[in-house]
Structure to design on (285 residues):
């Protein structure tokens, strides 16, 4: 009998890649079918993505993953059966307004996320917008003044997107003022090469925290969970799991950490070889 009771999967770089029509913007059919089979066997399958839930909903629906899912870098938990937000961690509105203003003042491309939609300022629309439209499968709401939307809405994630070292250093410098109230986790995307995404959430809210919340809801043990990712930031949640997997395309530092779990750690093939299936087979799923 398999000891694994739940699987936590990053999405981009793990089941979604950059090959349009093959693994982008959705996973290959055989991967979706395998996820459905695993879920049908009684194992929880949880997508753990910085994306909004509506960007992974098709995967959840097609694979019949009717257990609780996490999205927006851990800011929300969603019950797919009724689309109910089980948990939501909003950013303090005053902090969100202040930070957004500083990012815009420094001409940093910025997206603002609520649970069901996201905004950008019209005068910032550029190549990033089109690329992100493809990977999220949803277009942003264009507004004249982004700060006005922040002031009147409940924001769960702020996303500065940077291209140059100067831009990223600028964001990190701005963020220092908020480090006691917010968290930032930098990530990349296989289909948007050269850009860095600064996922900003409320303090203490991360993929790891969302996994701990799901463990509590389903009363399962961390040592019964397999976590799979492709970047160092994924260790945030993989590290609390008893079993660990890294894709062949994962960063060397994540591979090293995954293998530190010895017999419970495994590095599979790359995403373009459907490496997630290799990882599942290794762990007897």
């Amino acid at each position: 009998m398999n000891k694994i009771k739940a699987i936590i999967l990053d999405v981009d770089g793990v089941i979604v890649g950059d090959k349009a029509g093959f693994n982008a913007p959705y996973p290959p059919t055989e991967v979706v079918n395998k996820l459905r089979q695993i879920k049908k066997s009684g194992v929880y399958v949880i997508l753990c993505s910085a994306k909004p839930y509506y960007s992974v909903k098709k995967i959840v629906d097609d694979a019949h993953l009717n257990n609780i899912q996490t999205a927006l870098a851990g800011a929300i938990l969603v019950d797919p059966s009724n689309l109910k937000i089980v948990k939501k961690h909003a950013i303090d509105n005053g902090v969100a307004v202040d930070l957004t203003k500083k990012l815009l003042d420094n001409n940093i491309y910025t997206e603002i996320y609520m649970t069901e939609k996201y905004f950008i300022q019209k005068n910032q629309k550029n190549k990033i917008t089109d690329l992100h439209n493809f990977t999220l499968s949803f277009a942003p709401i264009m507004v004249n003044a982004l700060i006005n939307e922040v002031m009147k809405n409940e924001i769960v994630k702020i996303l500065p997107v940077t291209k140059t070292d100067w831009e990223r250093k600028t964001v990190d410098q701005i963020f220092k003022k908020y480090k006691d109230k917010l968290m930032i986790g930098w990530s990349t995307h296989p289909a948007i090469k050269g850009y860095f995404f600064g996922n900003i959430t409320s303090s203490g809210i991360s993929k790891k925290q969302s996994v701990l919340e799901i463990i509590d809801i389903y009363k399962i043990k961390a040592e019964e969970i397999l976590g799979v990712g492709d970047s160092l930031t994924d260790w945030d949640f993989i590290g609390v799991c008893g079993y660990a997997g890294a894709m062949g395309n994962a960063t060397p530092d994540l591979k090293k950490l995954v293998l530190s779990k010895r017999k419970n750690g495994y590095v599979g093939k790359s995403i373009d070889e459907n490496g997630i299936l290799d990882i599942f087979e290794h762990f007897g799923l």
Residues 93-202 form a domain with the Hypothetical Protein, Haloacid Dehalogenase-like Hydrolase; Chain: A; domain 2 fold (CATH 3.30.1240.10). The CA atoms of residues 222 and 241 lie 5 Å apart. The chain has two domains: 6-89+206-282, 93-202.
